[in-house]
Every structure is written in C-alpha cells, then in structure tokens.
Write a structure and sequence with these properties.
The protein folds into two domains: 111 residues, no CATH class; 191 residues, 3-Layer(aba) Sandwich (Glutaredoxin). Helices cover 54% and strands 8% of the residues. The strands form two sheets. Strands 3-5-4-6-7 form a five-stranded mixed sheet. The chain has a two-stranded antiparallel ribbon with strand order 1-2.
C-alpha cells in the first residue's frame, strides 16, 4: 500500500514540474527592466517623463485628462441627483427593472401638463415671439420643450446643491492642474498675496454677458475669504484682432504705466454700459471707450497709444490668447481654484462651485496626511 502511495506522489510531483517548465512563447524570460516606470515614451533614444514633456504633448495630456474628469464627475453628479429624486418620490423600483434609475425627463414628465405649458407661454412672451398658436399646430409641444428644459435645469441645480451641502454626495477626484503645464501666471494682474491659501484664476472677457454677470461673484468670494484669497485676471478672446484683444492690450499698457490702475480699468470695463453694445470688430466704438478709460484713469494718452501699437505688446497678448485656445477652453469665463478647474456652470453658481472645490481640496489634503 505504501509503495502505491509513493508512486502516486512521484507522478503528481513529476506532472507539476512538467507543467512549470512548459514553454510559453508569450512569456518573456528576461528579468531585466527595459524602461523605468516614470518614462512615458521615448523618441530617438531620448526618454520623456512628466517633467520634460514637449509643450504640444503637455497640452494634449491636459486636454485628455480634463475631458475625462469632466465626463466622469458630471456623470456622478447627474446619477445621484436622479437617485435622490427617485428616493424622494418613493420610486423604489422603476417599471420592474431593479437597479435602473429613470432619466431626469422621465422623472419630471408628469409634472408638466398642458395647463402649465399654456401658462408658461403666457408668462414668457419674450421667449416665443416666433410662435403663433393660431398658425402653428405644434406650438404647444414647442413651448413644452422649452418649459421642460428650464424646469429640469432648476430642479437639477436645486437638488445638486442640496446633496452637496448635506455631504450626501462627496466627490474625491480632481481635474488636472493647469499650473503644471508651463504657463507663468505671475505675469498676469493679481489682487492679493501670491502665497495666499486660495488662488482664483479667471480666464475671462469684458464683453461677453456671462463674464460680466459672473464677475460680480468675485466680490462675494473676497467678502467670505478675505486675505486667504488672491485673484488672477487673464483676458481672453477667440478672435485675434477683435475689440476684446484691444481691451487686453490696453490692460497690458495701463499695467505698464501704473500697475495699481489696472484694477480700476478692469472695473470700468466690466461695469461701463457702453461696453455691452460693442460688436466684435467695431474698432471705432472701442477707441472711444478706451479714450474715456484713459481720461478717467489719468493715463498719458500719447504713451498709452504708442504702447498699444508696439509689436512686442501685441505679440505678448496674441501668444497668451493662442496658449489658452490650445488648451481647448471652449467657454469663457473659466475659473480655476489653486489650478483646478471649477465647474461653475454645472453647479449653477461660482460661489457654490468655489466652496465645493475648496472643501474637496482640503479633504484630499487631510487624506494625504
């Protein structure tokens, strides 16, 4: 009996050894590492790591990481807004499909009836100047679409603010840091200490309505955070040579003349009603506006316009514009807290989005400790 058992054990051991020594053409036998972990790629025997990436690759990497972050974080917010409303409406099982969360349109479809749509049409005539109920048989559905979008958006933002404020939804991922791609933000106008706890960078424009509207929130942030906050102004436009570029150029020249006067110029441009109606390439009106600003700020007119006309200054401004265009910043204003993009549009408010990102940065710093 013992001999039989010994033969069986030998057979098992032998088969195991054979299995281990079986040749695998897909498995490398080399134990030598050919590339270190921090090398992203190499070209012509030159290795590239995070710290020495070419400018174009740094930009591409930032764009890709930002797009991924945006889609991921927005998906998280949108899902848990829907989950929260589903729970609130006691929809524990959506049409017998467990684990399926209804879309926002499905959640609120029953809230908007024909009477509500007709009232919305009556209360908002400015939105429906091209709709005539007597001539357009589909007018009710066209109005319903606009009403539904507004209704859902308002409820989405209300619920998002609620679940974030109550810390029911806590997001622990960060967008890529714009300060790590090589731009020198020290060359742009700044209010507050350079080493402040919170640095808000604004990529903005004096003429876009949204920029003028959201700029008012900056005062609220300074009231709340005081000396802990610094603000960096980056003028931007999508058209080289337009009035916005002239306004950025003017800001550079005013800063050169007297850095303290830039912020008076900035306030003048954001608050002056004449700036609202200036068209993109209306140079005549823009010149009148700048002349008014120069006079109000007591800037030497001759020196100012000579500065505006220098190739060096124009190149500096156009280089900045192209830099942010290459980053694929599709909408302005765009805001960054300590280098991290703030999704103020998705959050419905710059102040709320600032607080949420501030909490996230502080929470992740604590986790690292």
């Amino acid at each position: 009996m013992s001999k039989v058992l010994m033969i069986f054990v030998l057979l098992v051991v032998s088969s195991c050894k054979k299995e281990e020594s079986t040749y695998n053409p897909y498995k490398s036998t080399s134990t030598k590492a050919t590339v270190s972990n921090d090398v992203l790629f190499s070209y012509d025997n030159k290795e590239y790591k995070e710290e020495n990436l070419p400018k174009a690759i740094r930009f591409a990497k930032y764009r890709a990481e930002h797009a991924q972050y945006t889609e991921f974080s927005n998906s998280i917010r949108e899902l848990y807004v829907r989950v929260s409303y589903m729970q609130e409406r006691q929809m524990t099982d959506y049409y017998g499909r467990k684990g399926v969360v209804p879309s926002l349109s499905e959640l609120f479809k029953a809230d908007i009836d024909d009477d509500d749509v007709k009232k919305y049409y009556k209360d908002n005539p400015q939105l429906f100047k091209n709709i005539n109920p007597k001539k357009d048989k589909d007018w009710l559905e066209r109005v319903r679409y606009t009403r539904t979008i507004e209704y859902i958006t308002n409820r989405y933002l209300t619920k998002l603010n609620e679940i974030v404020d109550k810390k029911k939804l806590v997001i622990n991922i960060l967008p890529p840091n714009i300060k790590e791609i090589g731009v020198d933000f020290d060359k742009f106008p700044r209010i507050g200490a350079k080493d402040s706890k919170f640095e808000l960078i604004a990529v903005t424009n004096y003429f876009c309505p949204e920029c003028r509207k959201v700029n008012k929130d900056i005062s609220k942030l300074f009231s709340e955070f005081g000396k802990d906050l610094s603000y960096v102004h980056v003028g931007h436009t999508y058209n080289l040579g337009d009035v916005s570029m002239d306004s950025i150029l003017a800001g550079k020249c005013i800063t050169k003349s007297d850095p303290k006067k830039f912020w008076k110029y900035q306030r003048f441009m954001f608050e002056n009603e004449n700036a609202k109606g200036i068209k993109v390439f209306d140079k005549k009106k823009m010149k009148k506006l700048l002349s008014l600003a120069v006079k109000k700020l007591e800037i030497n007119k001759k020196d100012f316009y000579e500065c505006m006309d220098t190739k060096e200054r124009k190149y500096e401004v156009s280089e900045s514009i192209l830099f942010f265009r290459d980053l694929n910043i599709k909408e302005i204003p765009a805001y960054f807290l300590n280098g991290r993009h703030i999704s103020y549009r998705e959050m419905g408010s710059l102040v709320f989005a600032f607080r949420e990102m501030k909490s996230r940065l502080e929470r992740l710093d604590e986790i690292k400790k």
